[in-house]
């Protein structure tokens, strides 16, 4: 997946000249050591770049504006080693336009009880300086991430690494372009939304194309290209004929190969990173895109079904944020289908007609060709598998008419009790936190959609931080959710965000 940027984060240390040059030399030395050790930790997904100590209005303002102009700078980490008069930061903060983290730390981990003196006190004032700085950021109403603890603590480093991924999501949001093939499914409410407001809030561009314009790209794919990709499919996946004629089966698979190549060529040529389709408007396409869309998602494209551009953009965004996660388990589009309501075994079976990303697969992936009543086309080929176990997050971005709301649900993915041999789609099974009854009730009260953007590799905190940076409402459904409190939260939010 390409973002086109070699992102880095600037480390900016605040101080003042009240204690002389010798103090400032120590401030710079300490700051450099912190940056070096953070980069050597192996925990952070992006490089931290040390910047000279900031002590004046002019220098602070110039540094923040340089950060704005540097395309590789994805955010600034600030730390006040000593006291830094906060009015010096006002102009710089006013003009700064990128993610901001306040690392509330100090160079020393422990108070040096035996030899602490006033020189040490004067030179090590993070508990003092960070509060002065924090006050002005709060007074100015600037969104930022505050991380507290010693810089060498692995937990602090993990929090910083987590915020970096959110910051990349904030930066890349304005580069997301969604191609809408056809339009929204007729009479469906939740997949609709204000595309102009989405561009204002998130920077997304959402454009519509007639289905036959993209179908032309599919028709222009050569037989040689299709045959080569089909061979790749047959080498990579299990082939489940299930009584179908092998030649006829391969022909159906070849249709999806042509769609994958044609769609990707269209998206690359026109610079789109996400796509939506609609089974009710397929034009000259021979099949509903299934295997083709699954493969495109695996390559990093966002997807939403039935015209759901909001979920398509969120899937792309979350794939960007999760990129490079060690031992990644995957990110995908999903849809709620049916419940298991047996006591002690509650959960929601997740799938879609065809389009679930293979990154979430657990075990072998197979190709099936099966009838599909939706779409009125020939039997489409699709990838079939079950998904991994473990904790994950499912989110739904909804348009409430006067504002957007991001609903964030912690879920626990499990294996179903028995195989489902007659269900020819990729599936996941999860229980929403804190349990099915409370989780589903809260989701419905919040107006959540039946489509979700889902990831094993991101957290509710990361998604909430992204929403805060975008200036939209976020509600959490997790182990602590209580319906009475949740209803009150929705009421209070309706006043704050109106």
TrEMBL record:
Residues 177-324 form the L-arabinose isomerase central domain. Residues 330-473 form the L-arabinose isomerase C-terminal domain. Gene3D superfamilies: 3.40.50.10940. Its cofactor is Mn(2+). GO terms for biological process: L-arabinose catabolic process to D-xylulose 5-phosphate. The keyword Metal-binding applies. One of its GO terms (cellular component) is cytosol. Mn(2+) binds at residues 306, 335, 352, 451. InterPro entries: Ara_Isoase_C, AraA_central, AraA_N, AraA_N_sf, Fuc/Ara_isomerase_C, Fucose_isomerase_N/cen_sf, Lara_isomerase. Residues 7-173 form the L-arabinose isomerase N-terminal domain. This is L-arabinose isomerase. It comes from Candidatus Limivivens merdigallinarum. The gene is araA.
């Amino acid at each position: 997946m390409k973002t086109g940027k070699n992102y880095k984060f600037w480390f900016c240390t605040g101080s003042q000249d009240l204690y002389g040059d010798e103090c400032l030399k120590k401030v710079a030395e300490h700051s450099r050591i912190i940056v070096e050790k953070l980069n050597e930790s192996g925990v952070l997904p992006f490089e931290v770049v040390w910047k000279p100590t900031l002590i004046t209005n002019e220098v602070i303002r110039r540094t923040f504006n340089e950060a704005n102009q540097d395309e590789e700078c994805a955010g600034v980490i600030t730390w006040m080693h000593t006291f830094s008069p906060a009015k010096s930061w006002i102009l710089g903060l006013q003009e700064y336009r990128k993610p901001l983290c306040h690392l509330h730390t100090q160079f020393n981990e422990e108070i040096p009880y035996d030899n602490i003196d006033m020189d040490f006190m004067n030179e090590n004032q993070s508990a003092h300086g960070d509060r002065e700085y924090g006050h002005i950021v709060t007074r100015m109403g600037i969104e930022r991430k505050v991380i507290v603890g010693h810089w060498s603590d692995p937990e602090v480093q993990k929090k910083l690494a987590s915020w970096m991924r959110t910051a990349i999501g904030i930066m890349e949001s304005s580069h997301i372009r969604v191609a809408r093939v056809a339009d929204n499914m007729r009479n469906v409410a939740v997949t609709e939304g204000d595309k102009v407001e989405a561009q204002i809030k998130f920077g997304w561009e959402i454009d519509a194309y007639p289905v036959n314009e993209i179908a032309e790209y599919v028709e222009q794919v050569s037989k040689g290209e299709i045959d080569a990709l089909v061979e790749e499919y047959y080498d990579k996946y299990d082939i489940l004929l299930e009584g179908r004629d092998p030649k006829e089966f391969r022909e159906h698979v070849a249709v999806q190969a042509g769609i994958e190549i044609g769609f990707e060529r269209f998206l690359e040529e026109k610079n789109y990173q996400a796509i939506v389709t609609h089974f009710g408007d397929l034009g000259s396409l021979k099949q509903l895109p299934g295997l083709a869309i699954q493969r495109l998602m695996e390559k990093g494209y966002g997807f939403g079904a039935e015209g759901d551009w909001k979920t398509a953009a969120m899937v792309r965004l979350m794939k960007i944020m999760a990129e490079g996660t060690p031992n990644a388990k995957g990110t995908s589009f999903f849809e709620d289908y049916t419940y298991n309501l047996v006591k002690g075994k509650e959960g929601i079976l997740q799938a879609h007609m065809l389009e679930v990303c293979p990154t979430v697969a657990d075990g072998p992936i197979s190709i099936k060709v099966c009838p599909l009543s939706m779409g009125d086309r020939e039997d489409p080929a699709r990838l079939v598998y079950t998904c991994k176990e473990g904790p994950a997050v499912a989110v739904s971005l909804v348009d409430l008419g006067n504002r957007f709301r991001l609903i964030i649900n912690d879920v626990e993915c499990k294996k179903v009790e028995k195989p489902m041999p007659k269900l020819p789609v990729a599936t996941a099974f999860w229980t929403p936190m804190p349990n099915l009854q409370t989780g589903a009730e809260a989701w419905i009260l919040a107006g959540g959609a039946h489509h979700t953007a889902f990831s094993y590799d991101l957290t509710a905190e990361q998604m909430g931080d992204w929403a805060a940076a975008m200036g939209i409402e976020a509600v959490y459904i997790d182990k602590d959710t209580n319906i009475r409190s949740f209803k009150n939260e929705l009421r209070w939010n309706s006043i704050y965000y109106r």
